[in-house]
Write a structure and sequence with these properties.
It contains no helices and eleven strands. With about 120 residues, it is an all-beta fold. It starts with a strand and ends with a strand.
């Protein structure tokens, strides 16, 4: 089992920045991918960014150039630096982890609200 705990959400004005953190604990060995998804009210959950253990990152087109995902393997933590935030970035942001054996885990989410 892997436990994921997100932090760093909150209220920010458009154009502002926030940094989300996700700390992993438990059976962390074998975690291949970590990432962030988000779910806005009335919409499906969507991928935001993912990062491999080796540091390869990929982003959705909607956040590319504004968000940066990073990973500290020593701290078992993944970060999402969000800059130039827009009202449409408002959502609950979920951390997820995927192990090499195919098992996936989710955090409980952290709310990000961007005011116009």
């Amino acid at each position: 089992q892997v436990q994921l705990v997100e932090s760093g959400g909150g209220l920010v004005q458009a154009g502002g920045s926030l940094r989300l953190s996700c700390a992993a604990s438990g059976s962390i060995f074998g975690i291949a991918l970590m990432g962030w998804h988000r779910q806005a009210p009335g919409k499906q959950r969507e991928l935001v960014a993912i990062i491999t253990r080796g540091g390869y990152a990929n982003y959705s087109d909607s956040v590319k150039g504004r968000f940066t995902i990073s990973r500290d393997n020593a701290k078992n933590t993944v970060y999402l630096q969000m800059d130039s935030l827009k009202p449409e970035d408002t959502a609950v942001y979920y951390c997820n982890a995927l192990q090499l054996n195919g098992m996936g885990y989710w955090g409980k989410g952290t709310l990000v609200t961007v005011s116009s």
